[in-house]
């Protein structure tokens, strides 16, 4: 550790929402009073034991926490190196980590007296989680989804509609997640009085990156306790896939001050970083400003945002949460690219060896483990966030493998 | 010092002084630089003052204009598809300045293209090109250190958007560090959406006047000469954007290319709007 390293890696953001040079509040003035109101409401909620108690209640009885930390024995044997543990976010209600954050945000929305919920979604997991909590708490819900994603994630679109949400196809720009986020912001700026915007990832204007991280930190807090129970020590590496990066920051954050724990994020390299068709903003992007925060982005020399490309709709975003950008720049975490092809191989291997069909998103992390675990000693421990179940992806995978369903 | 690099605050102040002398409100027109293509856009720009534009807002195209409605989003995408970029935007301004020394030009857009250009270099180049001020939608006062302060230090105006959500508590923060004029966005929403009622505008103007002596321009949702005239009765200037940009879209051929009607359709609308504004207080 160099002398310039901070005393703690867990003390940010600063009061203006900065993680070093990243983060901030780059939004239209119409939204500023709302963002400030949200920041205050979140501060108050955090300090209120009743809010925590309510949140814990729903996480336990509705989401089904705590979920297991599972020793992936056959995958460990197959790779022949480090012991591999999965934090089973796929076993949550709705099948992914997204619900952790949605429970937190909808309880906050209720507390603030908001009567209408909007959200953006890529793969549809966050849309489903948002539609779910809206059904549970009786609030009308509008989900913006790129028309391209609606096509490739039709089961999730149907789920959202079953749950009573209105799914609005977005046909502007590149018709994917970033455009859905633009459209949700346009809705919010138009309906400032009654609407709460549930952002699905640890990005956007302050306080979202902090708030989403806090709500997702239940992943790392549980995993830290569970690995101590299982192994009586901390892991050597924590690893997770990053799109916007909410499951990753949720896993990483409780481990950031544990010097012996290596932190690895895995980005979607699509067809390969060299091809330009990917979503690897940390590996191949540069810092810029979009959607309310400064962070690493995919863009051209004129500052125009590029389309991201990944087989996994959940990683198909040209940016990344600002805290990841900071962790990369200060060297506390490293970020590795994994291609569609590598993720598919990992998807198959995990299904065959562990009887767990993983989401394509976290298949990227499994693929990175396939590269690293064999080089690590058998006494080493890797802890991965298995962020979601892969049932939603079977059509995409079948198509990629040339199988007709 | 050549005319081109007269401090931007000057040209804007002079223009509003002249409007006051004439006892009328001004017309602020918005087009996106490079829409539908760089050449046509330059032609339109050059004709705007004669058609009656008192101040020109020139949009800097951006792929993700999240505070704009469909009309201006599409204008951005048309411009980018036609090869527009920031350096060309500045060269269009330079070309305009060669022939027009008095009409203020305000660049309007989003922060990322400026940030990537480099703030210091951008301000230097913008000032030399003859830009008078900036409106950057995604830079609230909380981020003033990024661009607002450097802009003001460079002698250009940083024009702030105030909105229906800007209350008496928020307004002092909004008018601090701002200059040129204050832009009142009359409805909460994206550009081109619905318009505010007269009563709402009167109420908002009263609120704003308590906090600033700067001229106040009112925009969002103004589509017709009559609406522009209504606003011109209350405000120091009326801003029209989406309606003009929609006129450009309407004039294109089936391949989305400019036609020989493009410039004249735009200037035709601007003439109508200018008539409305100029006769509002008579």
UniProtKB/TrEMBL annotation, chain A:
It comes from the Bacteria. Residues 65-388 form the Tryptophan synthase beta chain-like PALP domain. It catalyses: (1S,2R)-1-C-(indol-3-yl)glycerol 3-phosphate + L-serine = D-glyceraldehyde 3-phosphate + L-tryptophan + H2O. Its cofactor is pyridoxal 5'-phosphate. It is an enzyme of class 4 (lyase). Its EC number is 4.2.1.20. Keywords: Amino-acid biosynthesis, Aromatic amino acid biosynthesis, Lyase, Pyridoxal phosphate, Tryptophan biosynthesis. The keyword Ion transport does not apply. Tetramer of two alpha and two beta chains. Belongs to the TrpB family. This is Tryptophan synthase beta chain. It comes from Thalassospira tepidiphila MCCC 1A03514. The lineage of its organism: Bacteria, Pseudomonadati, Pseudomonadota, Alphaproteobacteria, Rhodospirillales.
